[in-house]
Amino acid sequence: MNIELPLWPYVYGSPSGVGNIRSVPEDFIVVENLSFEPSGTGEHAFLQLQKTGENTEFVARQLARFADVRQRDIGYAGLKDRHAVTTQWFSVWLPGKADPDWTQLESDKIKVLQAVRHARKLKRGVLSGNRFKITVRDWQGDKVKTLQQLEAMKAHGIANYYGSQRFGHGGHNINKALAMFQGAKVGREQRSLYLSAARSFLFNQILAARVADASWNQALADDIYMFDGSHSSFKSEQPDADIIRRLAESAIHPTGVLWGMAKPIVALNALEQTVIDSYPELAQGLCACGVEMARRALRINVADLQWHFVDDTVLELEFTLPAGCYATALLREIIVLP
């Protein structure tokens, strides 16, 4: 079995233009927003770094060498794009030790913006969101349609697809997951990547089915809903007037399953079950690897979405998305992505 990435359906029609989003790193700017304020005291040094053209794991390794600590003593909240300018937090466990001179870490690609202490290691996912500033160059297209799509996304949100970078070039990571499930040996980092790709693919397939039948932002029988800005959820066998109202107000969102083991066993809705049954190798492999079931919102609100045509060929966008959500899920609605 070999899986090819499909072209998942769009919410707001086909893309209205073409353009380049990473001509230079400064065209893709990301700033992490922590969900808490570091306390100022504790064994962990929290560093806010601005990095250009470097991936998160490479910088984490540099930090470990610089501070003379183990790799596992470095924490970060999420992976960030390499081909970008990203402002990101890291933690370094320094029990009983003074901070080194962090300015010596700086280079033409890494700047230290803040250094503050905190009691606990920085954990994955503890962000309130990410702020993006993206410049689309060499833009060509239908400006009227683009503006209509942007207005619609600002008002009604976007489908919460995982971005193509989750799956590797051409979906490579999904097929590597299949090979791993069949016994291929992989390293620990690769194992995590492949499991994430397999589970994300199944989620995108579920979301795609609901986009296709226009239920991605509507209520179905046996749906589980997530509160906006929260991971808390609740189930409703049949939608009532209150659920329909809150969906219309974007206060809650339908969710899709992130497949894995569940104890006790959780029943899926009919659409989810159909998708999971269509990919038994992925579904069984995830469970065999001990991945735990979770939920993910099918829709997300786009906070403070702003846009500006600098000229006829340059479009600037600014917006904030919840942690774990992809800017490319918005961009794919208005421009054809490579």
Automatic annotation (TrEMBL):
Its EC number is 5.4.99.27. The active site is at D81. Keywords: Isomerase, tRNA processing. CDD domains: PseudoU_synth_EcTruD. One of its GO terms (biological process) is tRNA pseudouridine synthesis. InterPro entries: PsdUridine_synth_cat_dom_sf, PsdUridine_synth_TruD, PsdUridine_synth_TruD_CS, PsdUridine_synth_TruD_insert, TruD_catalytic, TruD_insert_sf, TruD_pseudoU_synthase. It catalyses: uridine(13) in tRNA = pseudouridine(13) in tRNA. GO terms for molecular function: RNA binding; tRNA pseudouridine(13) synthase activity. It holds the Pfam family TruD. Gene3D superfamilies: TruD, catalytic domain (3.30.2350.20), TruD, insertion domain (3.30.2340.10). GO terms for cellular component: cytosol. Residues 157-300 form the TRUD domain. PANTHER family: TRNA PSEUDOURIDINE SYNTHASE D. Belongs to the pseudouridine synthase TruD family. Responsible for synthesis of pseudouridine from uracil-13 in transfer RNAs. This is tRNA pseudouridine synthase D. It comes from Crenothrix polyspora.
